Amino acid sequence: MIQFGTGGWRDIIGDGFIKDNIVLVAQALAKLMKEEKVDSHGIVIGYDKRFLSDKASRWIAEVFAGNGIAVNFIEKVSPTPLIMYTVKSFACDYGLAVTASHNPADYNGIKIFTKGGKDADLSVTKKLEEILKGLSREEVKTMKFQEGKDKGVIRSVSPFNDYVDAIISMLDKEAIRNRELKVLVDPMYGVSKAALQTVLITVRCEVDVINDRHDTSFGGRMPSPTKETLGKLRDMVKAGNYDIGIGTDGDADRLGIIDEEGNYVTSNDIMALLYYYLLKYKGMKGPVVRNLSTTHLLDKIAEDFGETCYEVPVGFKYISGKMLETDAILGGESSGGLTIKGHIKGKDGIFAAALLVEMISVTGKRIHEMLKDLQEKYGAFHMHEENLALTEEEESSLKRRLFEEKEVPHLSEAVKTVSYQDGLKLYFENGGWLVARFSGTEKLVRVFTEMATLREAKQIATEFMGHFGIDG
Questions:
Q1: Contacts by residues 466-471 (CB-CB < 8 Å, ≥ 24 positions apart)
Q2: How far is the C-alpha of 406 from the C-alpha of 49, rounded, in Å?
Q3: What's the confidence (pLDDT) of residue 441?
Q4: Whole-angstrom Cα distance, residue 448 to residue 458?
Q5: d(C-alpha 47, C-alpha 105), whole Å
Q6: 32-36, 325-329, 334-338: which range is least confident on average?
Q7: CA–CA distance, 443 with 430 (Å, rounded to integer)
Q8: N vs C: which end of the chain shows fewer Cβ within 10 Å?
């Protein structure tokens, strides 16, 4: 059964991610496009560096060509945000990327994008799942890739320059040039190198790059820019006196930051810094959108500037949708993805990194100095996260207790309100909170807590897990 999670369809290569399933997903989308009568606009197809991504993207292109749908095929490995930008700039109703983003190397998958270059929402993925239920391999129509090119149904496109120029046009180039920053980039064996390096060199940063060879095993680590995976970047930033270290995940829609002192900067802090920067230094006005597992520091900043912080379920499609609805100037999530008004309607690690470089240049302050300013102004916010693998029996039991029986444990902090918008969220009287939700892309239950101290955040998570008999 092919199911779509918060980040598209993902499965293990050679198990669920096989040619028969790949072409079925393509045929389902082709059928949907014809039903919606948007097939004449064509589709954008791109892929990353993962094992089988290049071949899978061609199999997919062959299906759309076989269905008489024009394919705008990006021949080179590309960041997901570049593919989303191309969907927007080509005014296509649909696009897709062959990627599994930050998942382990044995995964691959397909992300679907809709008009404007945004992540497909639940209404689209549900339609695709319904079509897939009644679709057989025999119904898949194909045309050989070269035949499609010869007939002009498949055409190669190269949107790299347009995407890079769009990012550069949104930056304060003069301020960055004047700072002459020294930047170290870790693409984590993914696809950000060319675009990010080009942007930063164009605005006269000194740029060095590590971990940039083509390695489908991602150096034996998760291609996710976390405190645990960016150890080499951290050590080299400190030893080499770099102004900032930038890590991006496998498809470059998320980022992780190492400050000039070698400290890992959390995604929550990155979002808070950029929202504060946009309001105070760029003079922008507007609300912010975060998912329910992202820091409430954003709420404090918004309130201080007379703005609103909107909370949505996990999945960037909800963030981009709410941004459009509320005219928000920034939206993002604690897992490292964000975007701002005027750019694509999806997360972009390359653009976010460039904006952080601009922030350092314009303010004249180092990252750790700005974080200290925020803490003094708004108080301390510390998040703790647990990712717990469960057996099917444990998962079924926990879901029943949480969502059917609505069991709320007695914890050391008083609960103010309870929400079931996406999983379970407990809002505490002291301003802290806890979220427990099941992953949409992996067989995990995730527990997030945020309190004034890390010790308190860990304690609340431990109490919650202990109550339900799950091990951290």
A1: 467/409, 467/410, 467/411, 468/398, 468/401, 468/409, 470/388, 470/390, 470/394, 470/398, 470/445, 471/388
A2: 43
A3: 59
A4: 9
A5: 15
A6: 334-338
A7: 32
A8: N
Q: What are 400's two structure tokens? A: 């029943």
CB–CB of 13/106 below 8 Å?
A: yes
Do the beta carbons of residue 307 and residue 288 sit within 8 Å? yes
Q: Cα(52)–Cα(12) distance, rounded to whole angstroms?
A: 11
The answer to whether residue 315 scores a pLDDT higher than 90 is no
Task: Give residue-wise pLDDT tens across range 220-245.
Answer: 999 999 999 999 999 999 999 999 99
Rounded distance between C-alpha atoms, residue 58 and residue 66, angstroms: 12
pTM of the predicted protein model: 0.92
d(CA 46, CA 68): 19
Q: Label residues 357-395 b or e (16+ Cβ within 10 Å = b).
A: bbbbbbbeeebeebbeebeeebeebbbbbbebebeeeeb
Q: Which amino acid is at 287?
A: P
pLDDT per position as a tens digit, 116-166? 999 998 899 999 999 999 999 999 999 999 999 999 999 999 999 999 999
Q: Which two tokens stand for residue 334?
A: 């604690």
Residue 148 backbone class (left: φ over 0; alpha: ψ -120 to 50; beta: rest): alpha
Residue 20 CB neighbours (<10 A): 8
What are residue 436's DSSP bridge partners? Answer: 424, 447
Alpha carbon distance 32, 38 (integer Å): 9
CA atoms within 13 A on the CB side of 417: 4
Cross-strand pairs, 289 = 310, 331
- Pull the structure tokens for residue 201: 């060199």
Residue carrying the six token digits 């955040």:
457
Using alpha carbons, select from 274, 266, 319, 322 the residue that is nearest to residue 295.
266
